[in-house]
Amino acid sequence: MTALNKLSSAKVRTAPPGKYSDGGGLWLVKRDDGGAQWVLRVTVYGRRREMGIGSLQAVSLKEARETAEKWRAVVREGKDPIKERDRKRRLAERQDHTLASVAHEAFEARKSQLKGDGKAGRWFSPLELHVLPKIGKVPVEEIDQQDIKNALEPIWHEKADTARKAMNRLNITLEHAAAMGLNVDLQAILKAKALLGKTRHKAKNIPYMPWPEVPAFYSSLTEQTPTHLALRLLILTAVRSYCVRFCHLDQIDGNVWTVPEDNMKGQVGVVTDFRVPLSDEALAVIELAKPLAREGYLFPSVRKGVISDATMSRHMERRELLARPHGFRSSFKTWCVETTDMPEVVVETSLAHVVGSKVERSYRRTDLLERRRPLMVRWADHVTGKNASEVIRIA
């Protein structure tokens, strides 16, 4: 039997450059540059294998002997210690690369493209609420269509939009995992959709107020409160409620309101700052709101911050109206289509919609502000009842 434990601590510490056997295939290799490492030599399947088990600086003689014995035991089982070590390392990495951990990495990588770092739009919520509690601890390489189906089946028909968003986030997560070099099934999303089938949910448009009825509602907003004034500005400008709620005095310059990119819907870098031409009526509403401003925000809440997203909706609910604030954008669009000849590109730009292909937009270096101005003035005239009997044709 080959002798073991040939080396002493003193020998290990003082030996000059060279190779020194401790027995049982354990060697200490000292280099001319002063470095040293432990190497285990074993024979597996008639082939000699050498595996490093650490540097002398990190692994003591005692630790090297214990590690060598562990791997010699693996050899006695007829296994290749190097392959076994690699297998265990891959297994440990798979446990580290759970769906939850990779999903968070994917979110962090995508944050800079999202409005408000993804918090305002709650980008991560569909995963956090409906997917990760069920399969978040599963290694991402093991995720298959059945896992995804089981996670989303409870909301597939009842909360179809949320399920759709969750699918989208899952797809981004799997693509991120593939980019990390992990062996994931990029077809799992499509397969899961096939298993789940077509959703029974039918998308419903946000209820809107027919444009002929808008003047009567507008005239009822007589109170000088953040809610009434915010609704008035929302109607007059046809912007989204988020833009109105976070309207700041610094954003107003003369008769132009510049909504910052962070307050616009869409990905950062795709949507930019948006200029809104202000009619005289809109400017008058802003003047009425100025005395109410807090920290520069025109529509503050009772306690802190700005009015909530539900504040204006609740006002309309109390009035027993089916329409909701966002629906006034549809009121404006329908009014444009039915009563004006304004080109679609002007109307869509007024709604801050992305118009045309990427190539077209790269050549169209204008937001059509001056063409939109008379349109918004005419809309304000309609809203305030000044042209109630007029059918408008705008060249």
Automatic annotation (TrEMBL):
Residue stretches in coiled coil? none
Q: Which organism is it from?
A: Sulfitobacter delicatus
Provide the protein name: Tyr recombinase domain-containing protein
**In the record, what terms sit under GO molecular function?**
DNA binding
BP terms from Gene Ontology: DNA integration; DNA recombination
Does the keyword section mention DNA-binding?
yes
Residues forming the Tyr recombinase domain are 204-376
Q: Which family does it belong to?
A: Belongs to the 'phage' integrase family.
